[in-house]
Design a protein that fits this description.
Elements: H1 2-41, H2 47-58, H3 60-70, H4 77-92, H5 94-102, H6 105-109, H7 113-147, H8 154-181
Helix pairs in contact: 1-4, 1-5, 1-7, 2-7, 2-8, 3-4, 3-8, 5-7, 7-8
């Protein structure tokens, strides 16, 4: 019972921290997004680099959080807390880029759209992989719980989680390929 309470407490802390960081990074993006993008334009990074960074912002944090959660029993409580807060910050960082896809790159990054456009395109590809990964996980876990008589065993759940982790990683690798080399696919359009 104590472990379940700790897990609920940790999950609640993680979700609250994610929401807090999302609000923080969203406010930073809305207030200083253009200034930050203009400073980033001064770096010697190409469009492919910004696509990759945008993908890094949205792609890996969810699967890394799932991996840390699944393997959390091997970590000390303070390590789980610290890693949970870092992952919450990483997930919240998406709010710095996401408004560019919801509204427009110009409204989020203004004259810094030269950086903001590939950054938001890479972000969109990473987030698409996560949406597909979440949907696949829901379907697989629903099928598991409906087809196994009674409650799935710990071994069945562990095997299923490991399958989902690997499938999600494949989705992320495919989305990275599309982010870097799929601009002509026409799925996501430039905001400028």
């Amino acid at each position: 019972m104590g472990s379940a309470v700790a897990s609920r407490t940790e999950l609640r802390r993680f979700l609250l921290a994610s929401a807090g960081f999302a609000v923080l990074f969203g406010a930073i993006g809305r207030t200083w997004g253009e200034d930050i993008a203009l400073e980033l334009q001064k770096t010697p990074t190409t469009d492919l680099g910004w696509l990759f960074i945008g993908w890094l912002i949205s792609g890996p944090p969810f699967i890394v959080a799932a991996l840390v959660w699944h393997e959390g029993g091997r970590l000390a409580p303070s390590e789980r807390r610290d890693r949970g807060l870092l992952l919450a910050a990483w997930i919240g960082l998406s709010m710095f880029v996401m408004p560019a896809k919801l509204d427009s790159v110009d409204s989020q990054f203004g004259t810094g759209a030269l950086v903001g456009d590939p950054l938001s395109l890479g972000w969109a590809w990473g987030m698409l992989a996560n949406v597909v990964g979440f949907a696949f996980a829901v379907v697989v876990l629903t099928v598991l719980h409906r087809t196994v008589p009674g409650k799935p065993s710990a071994a069945q759940l562990d095997l299923t989680y490991r399958l989902l982790e690997r499938a999600w990683l494949v989705l992320l690798v495919v989305s990275l390929g599309f982010a870097l080399y799929g601009n002509d696919a026409g799925i996501f359009h430039s905001g400028t």
